[in-house]
Amino acid sequence: MAVTGASLVETKKVKTAGREKCMKKLAIGLLFAAGRVSPRGLCAQSPKALPHSAMHAAAQGTLDNLMAAFSAESNSREEALAWAKKADEEGYKKAAQLFRAVAKSEEIHAGFHAGVIKSLGGKPVPEMKTPVVKSTRENLERALQNETMSAEKLYPGFVEQAKADNVKEARMAFGSAIKIYSGRKPLYEAAIKNLKAWKKASRGFMVCTVCGELVEHINFMKCPVCGAAAGKFIRVR
Ligand SMILES: [Fe+2]
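Above: query sequence and fe (ii) ion SMILES. Below: predicted holo structure tokens.
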């Protein structure tokens, strides 16, 4: 649930630091947004006293999707690191660089999702799995398959749910994930098509530290996904 204009006005009226902290947490609550409980009444209660289901009922679908995305991206990070190690062992240095950059990208985007989960009162705890490591070619094909499915099927549904729940931050997070996954697709396809050439190390890949966008070369002034300055990108080798 997005913070409403009314809730922000109420928040400004609160003077003490303790109450401000309380208001910040509660402003995103549905009870407050719905006006069913006064700000003062909510602050008087321990957050634990508020039933989670009541607090987030209308945004529960989006919260569930955020948790699923957070787990998937946390696992993707570990998987990419394991695949990078395998690529190095097989001598595909550029593929290893790509996987390390993907791991950094997933780490940044998972952090983005974790922030939105916290803003909705959830606790971002990923459900981790042991990475499955095959040959580098198979790992690249798996990465391409997973990310294509996420960009074309899974995340568009998450965006629609976030729109329905009116959680702007989640809609933006899922939307940027779609752009990032779609942008990585040509890199995986190039590696699969000409894997032999990917034995030679490159200068590495550039990752936006704000949103996780991943590119091979910077030919823009601002990140095409989040609009951050090009200087916010870091090189991952
Ligand atoms: Fe970005």
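The CA atoms of residues 5 and 165 lie 17 Å apart.
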